[in-house]
Design a protein that fits this description.
The complex is a heterodimer of chains A (291) and B (328).
Chain A: H1 11-24, H2 27-44, H3 46-49, H4 81-117, H5 121-133, H6 137-148, H7 152-178, H8 182-189, H9 194-230, H10 242-249, H11 258-285
Helix pairs in contact in A: 1-11, 2-4, 2-11, 4-5, 4-7, 4-9, 4-10, 4-11, 5-7, 6-7, 7-9, 8-9, 9-10, 9-11, 10-11
Chain B: E1 6-17, E2 20-32, E3 37-41, H1 48-55, E4 63-71, E5 74-75, H2 81-87, E6 92-95, H3 109-121, H4 125-138, H5 144-147, H6 157-169, E7 175-179, H7 187-204, E8 207-212, H8 215-221, E9 224-229, E10 232-238, H9 239-244, H10 249-256, H11 299-303, E11 309-312, E12 315-317
Classes of the chains: A mainly alpha (291), B alpha/beta (328).
Chain lengths: 291, 328
C-alpha cells in the first residue's frame, strides 16, 4: 500500500494564503494593484514601450492630431505625446516611491524613539511635528523646493521631508500603543535590551500600519511632484514629467486641450490606482476593519 | 540557618501619580530559600504583584522603590541597568498572568524561546533550536518539534502559558516569579500548570514565588505563605501551619471564603465574605490596615500599627488580637 504524503502548509504560508484570498475578494483593490504595477513597470521600461524618445521632435507634425503614427498626437514642438506620457511616469514613480522611502527612513526611527522612550524627547518631537503639520503639505513642499533649487532630486528631497511629520505621527502613535503590550513587558522581564525590543517587538508589529500608510503616501507625493514640476520647481525641460507637460500645455489649452488631458488623466489614474490598492491593503491587514 | 537565596527587607513602593501618592507596599520583608516555593497571597491591590515586579525593576517610572532585596549578596533594587538585564530572565524570571497576550504575535513560539536562550547563554541558532524543543517537551507540550514552528495564535491559553513557563525556565533561573499564572485559565488547565510548576521545582530546583489570590492554589504547591493586606505583611507561616492555625483575622476571613462541597448540612449554607473594603493607600496608615473590617478591632487597633509578632517557630503575625478558631 502506498500513501501520498500530504504536507500541511506552514503557518506563515497559511497566513499569506489567507491574506491573499482576502485581498483577491476586493476587486477594486486588485484593479488598483494591477494598474499601479502597470505604471511602475511602464516607468521602468519606458524606452521599450514608447515609440519615440521623449526628446525627439517631429517638426513636420506640430500639434498633430492623434493618428496611427502619433497615438496621442504631438505637442507644439512636435514631441510624440504618448511617448512623453510614458516617460513622464518615470519622474512620478521615482518621486512617489523614493520620497516615500526617504520619509519612512526618517520617520520610523524618530517615531519609535519618541513613542518608546517618552521622556523629554517625546513632547519635543510631538510639538515639532504638530507645528510642521500646521503647514499644508504642498505649501511646505513648495517652500522647501524653492529653497533647495529646482531639480527632480531636490523635489524628491522636499516631498520626502514634507511627508515626514505625518509618518512620524503614525509611527509614534503605534510605538506608544505597542510599548504597553504584555509581550513587551514579558520581553523586558526576560532581559531584552531597548534595542532588541524596538527591533524585534515594536517595529515588526507596526509594519502593517506603516505599509498601508506608505501606500497611501505614494499617490500624494505623485501629485506633489506634478505640482512642483508644474510650478517649475521640479523636473526641468527638456527632461519631462507629467507636471512639465501640463505646464507646457497651458499655452494651448483652447487650441489643443488634449495636451493637458493625457498627462492629467495619467496623474488621476496613477493616483487612484495607488489609493485603491492602499485602501484594500488596509482592509486586509487591519483586523479592526474586518467585515 | 543558611543564608537565604533572596532576602527582601524594608521594601516600600510608592507611586507618585497625578492624583497624589499611593503607598502600594509598606516595609515588606520576606526571605526565599533555594528551591523553596513561597506563596504571596492577598486580594487585588494588596501590593503582592507590585512588590514582585519591583524586584526586577519592572514598575513604571512613577514608582519609587526603597528598601533592600539581596539576591546572592547583591541588592537587586540598586544595580545598574546593564547588570539588571543580565539578571532578568537568567537568574530571576517572571511568568505573567496573561498568557493570551504575553507572546509576540509575529514570531513563532520557538523563535521567541530561542531569543532568550541566545541572549543569555549565547547559544548558536542551531543549539538554541535544539534546547527550545527540549524545553517545550519539558513543559509537556505534545509534538514539540511542530509546535515550535507555530505562532502564538495557533496555541490555546494553557499551551501559551506553558510556552511562557518554558521561556522563563529556559536559562535555568534560580528564582521563578509567577504572577497569578493560572488565573486566566480554565480550572482543568490550572491544575496542569500547577502540576508542571511543582515538577519543575523538583527537577530543576528552581525557587518559586507564587503570587495568587487563591489560597487553594497555595495549599497545593507552596511551602511557606506570606499573606499581604494593604501593602503590609499580615501573616507568614509554613503552609500547613497557616491552614491549621491561622492567627490573623484577615487570613481566617480568606480561609472562610474558600468554597467547599457538601457543607449545607453543617449550618453554613453560604460562603462567608469579609465585610467592608480595602483602605485607600494615599496616606501611609498609622493604624492596623484591617481595622475597619475586623471583628476584633478596638481602640488600640485603630491607633497603632501592629508589629509582627512571632507566635510559632516560623509563624509571624501582625495583629494585636491574634489566634482564634476558623470553621474547618
Amino acid at each position: 500500500m502506498s500513501y501520498v504524503e500530504v504536507r500541511p502548509l506552514g503557518p506563515a504560508a497559511r497566513r499569506r494564503r489567507i491574506l491573499r484570498r482576502r485581498f483577491l475578494r476586493r476587486p477594486l483593490a486588485v484593479v488598483g494593484l494591477v494598474v499601479a504595477l502597470g505604471f511602475v513597470i511602464g516607468a521602468i521600461f519606458a524606452p521599450l514601450i514608447a515609440p519615440y524618445d521623449y526628446k525627439e521632435a517631429d517638426f513636420n507634425a506640430v500639434l498633430a492630431h492623434p493618428s496611427s503614427k502619433h497615438l496621442f498626437g504631438t505637442d507644439a514642438l512636435g514631441h510624440d505625446i504618448f511617448s512623453q506620457v510614458v516617460f513622464g511616469a518615470r519622474a512620478s514613480m521615482e518621486a512617489g516611491v523614493l520620497a516615500t522611502l526617504l520619509a519612512l527612513a526618517v520617520a520610523i526611527p524618530v517615531g519609535l524613539i519618541a513613542g518608546y522612550y517618552r521622556g523629554w524627547v517625546d513632547p519635543v518631537i510631538a510639538r515639532l511635528t504638530d507645528a510642521l503639520l500646521a503647514f499644508p503639505f504642498l505649501i511646505l513642499a513648495v517652500g522647501l523646493a524653492a529653497i533647495l533649487g529646482p531639480s527632480l532630486k531636490n523635489a524628491i528631497l522636499a516631498l520626502g521631508i514634507g511627508a515626514v511629520p505625518q509618518l512620524i505621527r503614525i509611527a509614534r502613535g503605534e510605538a506608544l500603543a505597542l510599548r504597553e503590550e504584555d509581550y513587551v513587558r514579558a520581553a523586558i522581564a526576560n532581559g531584552a535590551s531597548d534595542f532588541t525590543i524596538l527591533r524585534r517587538h515594536i517595529l515588526p508589529n507596526m509594519m502593517s500600519t506603516i505599509i498601508v500608510q506608505a501606500t497611501v503616501t505614494i499617490p500624494i507625493l505623485i501629485i506633489g511632484e506634478a505640482t512642483l514640476s508644474f510650478l517649475g520647481l521640479g523636473v526641468q525641460p527638456p527632461a519631462t514629467s507629467w507636471g512639465v507637460q501640463l505646464r507646457a500645455a497651458q499655452d494651448y489649452l483652447f487650441d489643443a486641450p488634449r495636451l493637458a488631458v493625457y498627462p492629467g488623466v495619467a496623474i488621476v489614474v496613477a493616483t487612484l490606482s495607488f489609493n485603491l490598492f492602499g485602501d484594500g491593503l488596509r482592509d486586509v491587514l487591519d483586523p479592526r476593519t474586518q467585515r | 540557618m543558611t543564608t537565604p537565596l533572596l532576602e527582601v527587607s524594608d521594601l516600600s513602593v510608592r507611586f507618585d501619580t497625578d492624583d497624589g501618592a499611593v503607598h502600594a507596599v509598606d516595609r515588606l520583608a520576606y526571605t526565599l530559600g533555594a528551591g523553596e516555593v513561597l506563596g504571596l497571597v492577598g486580594e487585588s491591590g494588596c501590593g503582592k504583584s507590585v512588590s514582585a515586579l519591583s524586584l526586577l525593576g519592572l514598575l513604571p517610572a512613577t514608582a519609587r522603590v526603597t528598601g533592600e532585596a539581596l539576591f546572592e549578596g547583591v541588592n537587586v533594587l540598586d544595580v545598574p541597568a546593564r547588570q539588571l538585564r543580565r539578571i532578568r530572565g537568567k537568574e530571576i524570571s517572571f511568568v505573567f498572568q496573561e498568557p493570551m497576550t504575553s507572546l509576540n504575535p509575529v514570531f513563532t513560539v520557538g523563535k521567541q524561546i530561542s531569543e532568550v536562550l541566545r541572549r543569555h547563554l549565547e547559544l548558536s541558532s542551531k543549539e538554541a533550536r535544539k534546547r527550545t524543543v527540549e524545553l517545550l517537551k519539558l513543559v509537556r507540550i505534545p509534538a514539540a518539534e511542530r509546535r515550535a514552528d507555530e505562532y502564538p495564535h495557533q496555541l490555546s491559553g494553557g499551551m501559551r502559558q506553558r510556552v511562557m513557563i518554558a521561556m522563563a525556565v529556559a536559562c535555568d533561573p534560580k528564582i521563578l516569579i509567577a504572577d497569578e499564572p493560572t488565573t486566566a485559565l480554565d480550572v482543568t488547565i490550572q491544575a496542569g500548570i500547577l502540576d508542571l510548576m511543582r515538577d519543575l521545582r523538583e527537577r530543576l530546583g528552581t525557587a518559586i514565588i507564587l503570587i495568587t489570590h487563591n489560597l487553594g492554589v497555595v495549599a497545593d504547591i507552596a511551602d511557606r505563605v506570606v499573606v499581604m493586606y494593604a501593602g503590609r505583611k499580615a501573616e507568614e507561616a509554613p503552609v500547613r501551619e497557616l491552614f491549621a492555625r491561622p492567627q490573623h483575622p484577615y487570613t481566617i476571613g480568606l480561609l472562610n471564603a474558600i468554597p467547599r462541597l457538601g457543607e449545607e448540612g453543617n449550618g453554613r449554607a453560604r460562603l462567608q465574605e469579609i465585610p467592608g473594603r480595602v483602605p485607600s493607600l494615599s496616606e501611609p496608615l498609622d493604624h492596623c490596615a484591617f481595622a475597619d473590617r475586623c471583628p476584633r478591632a478596638d481602640d488600640l487597633t485603630r491607633s497603632h500599627v501592629p508589629p509582627l509578632e512571632r507566635v510559632g517557630p516560623e509563624h509571624l503575625v501582625a495583629c494585636f488580637h491574634p489566634g482564634g478558631e476558623w470553621s474547618h
